[in-house]
# Entry
Amino acid sequence: MPEKPNAFAIAQQQFFNVADKLKLSAGIRAFLAEPEAVHVFTVPFKRDDGSTQVVTGIRAQHSFARGPAKGGLRFHPDVTVDEVKALSMWMTWKCAVVDIPYGGGKGGLVIDYKALSAGEKERLTRAFARRMAPVIGPDFDIPAPDVNTGAQEMAWIADEYGHTVGHPEPAVITGKPVELGGSLGRGSATGRGLVFCVERFFENNKQSIKGKTVAVQGFGNAGQYAARLIAGLGANVVAISDSKGAIHNPKGISIGAAIEHKNKTDQVTGLDGKEITNEELLQLEVDILIPAALENVITAQNAKKVRAKLIAEAANGPTTPEADAILFKKGITIIPDVLANAGGVTVSYFEWVQNRQRFYWTEEDVNTRLREIMRRSLDQVERTASEHQCMWREAAYRLAIERVANAVKTSRNL
Ligand code: NAD
# Structure
């Protein structure tokens, strides 16, 4: 097996490429090239058999320049310090693209979390929360769910943190269940934010989204909401897929029925239409391709065969840099992950705002404010891309890095 590329080396290279173009000072480059803080903890917890296991826990805080750090917690055996550092840097740029007042953070536990019993999961998550408690907080660093963590883990962490500080503090973490201060609209936020971007893209190009054909790779949380909402605007979703296979139906797939089928059978195959492979789905002649599953699926090998006119990245990192260059030459626009899937972190920000205000919004309030932010951000990225004649990914990074660099310059005189 080829060795996994070092994510932090990639993140740094991406940053340096844009830093060169922005002519950032040596001081700011050096400062933003590393997280401001990286905490590595031993996290002991009791197994069901009475033995003690010690797990490595990590929390990286890339930047506090624009506000507290923000980002998820992933519990997975492949988590490394470098991966967490890279993800924390990417979160800084993502928050800055949509201009929400956060820097980037990320954390993880190096463990096969899925193999633990319910009791072990709770003891481990609470032990990690106690370790993190001195370095997180609503004004400092606000974790959230990521791979293998969800509302239950967030509830345990909020509870443990509340006991540590002596009062309930829901704003320490987002992605909580609604009854503990989670926000309405968080579940659909990533797919919804992406669809707001796509809708705005066509508006700016004086086209209607009605009748546009769409292929969605990955029919999970982000993919299902994106498919359902884009179909609601009159687009025609002609292909969907999951890890078991893909379905193509040029007449259009009923998304309501597809979600029901997926919930019942845990697959999309079996729906009306022709069975195709995930690779074939990426190469369909459609107006909009939405990768919503894994990273590195559009590569130097298949980019030449991609026939979509627009790619909107729900997944993180679905397009490799080599594929980016090929698609740019072909005139295919990519709404990059840092913009297209930023609806999730934006509604996490709304959750934190509501927790701090102790005043809760309706789902309509949440969606209206999300729409405003996504449309404004898309316009800014589009304008930057046209000003510099560059791909949208570079434009998004330019905007983000410039915002963070300006904050650092003003506050620290670097
Ligand atoms: P999910 O686990 O709910 O769904 C993932 C889907 O991808 C599943 O349907 C799965 O079957 C499918 N899949 C897995 N392997 C596949 C393969 N080889 N080919 C085709 N499909 C495959 O996850 P999600 O929350 O929807 O996240 C999807 C992507 O979006 C990830 O990259 C995630 O990082 C990104 N993202 C999600 C959110 C969010 O709020 N959910 C926010 C930002 C980014």
User: Anything to note?
Assistant: Residues 189-340 form a domain with the Rossmann fold fold (CATH 3.40.50.720). The chain has two domains: 34-180, 189-340. Residues 190, 217-223, 241-243, 278, 292-294, 314-316, 341, 344 surround nicotinamide-adenine-dinucleotide (CB under 6 Å).
